[in-house]
Amino acid sequence: MNRLKDIRFILIFIGLVFLFIFPVLSSDFYLINILSIAFIYAVYAGSWDILSGFTGKENMGHAAFIAIGAYLLGFVSAVYSIQPWLSIPMAAVASALFGIAIGVPTLRLKGPYFALASLAVASIFENLTISYSEFTGGEEGIFGIPFLTPGPTSDYYFMLIFSFISILILFIAGKSNFGLILKSIKSDEDAAKAVGIKTTKYKVTAFALSAMFAGMAGAVMGHFYGYVGPDIVYPLSLNTLIMAVVGGIGGIIPAALGGFFISLLTELLRGLGQWNNLIYTVILMLSILFLPKGAFKTLGEFLKPKNKKNKTPKLRGEENE
Structure pTM? Predict the structure, then answer.
């Protein structure tokens, strides 16, 4: 009942209803495709947030996890015509295992060293992609991947449902004791260790969870384009970080909304030509300067219902005084 009184959940519900009926209201396939892509960017930002926003470990190489899912799909598609019902679970398992393999050694690093290590991992992946072009297609990428569904409208609903389920799972994880422990690690890892929390286990689990959803989103995007290449994968390290920070980190939904709306903004500004990057940069700078907590996290705090102060009950006889 309390959530029914929370205007934030009401607005999210209205937004979801609108998105579900949008293809009925509009037959503009361009807008439908742009919204479909925005759903996946929301998952990219949300999956980044469950690690970096909750633990404070800034992942500068999120594209490496996206690449695992996307290129695994590309490799298999070069031999078999793999369908989404199989490729997405494969991407989930492979990306999660990769997250564990990378997380165990790198998460022991503190300060900026983890960020540099994650950036190095993404850079290595990009160089390997170019070097082993006989497997990855090099700069041209891999073509001929089976499309997600038969048409743009069904693609839209597939990606909307995938995005909704992914963000919901990440949100529930963030609101659980698991998320609370991650935030305690971010606040003071030494204090968390002192009370018996196995911080390494929780950080590695968050790393695997982040990698898993990023990899699945990468596989979905590969099916959507029918193509996997460096141009749609490796720029996402910086883009995802910006989207999550502008939306608001440490809450999943604000970060995901940042990914959704900034990807839409990027497409809307595309027609401005050379002014595109300048306007985009100015908007990001203004957001960071005046909304340091993030645009949607600040909005959520503003709309959050205020708790009424509990009045101290009066003792018998005091009401007559």
Answer: 0.90
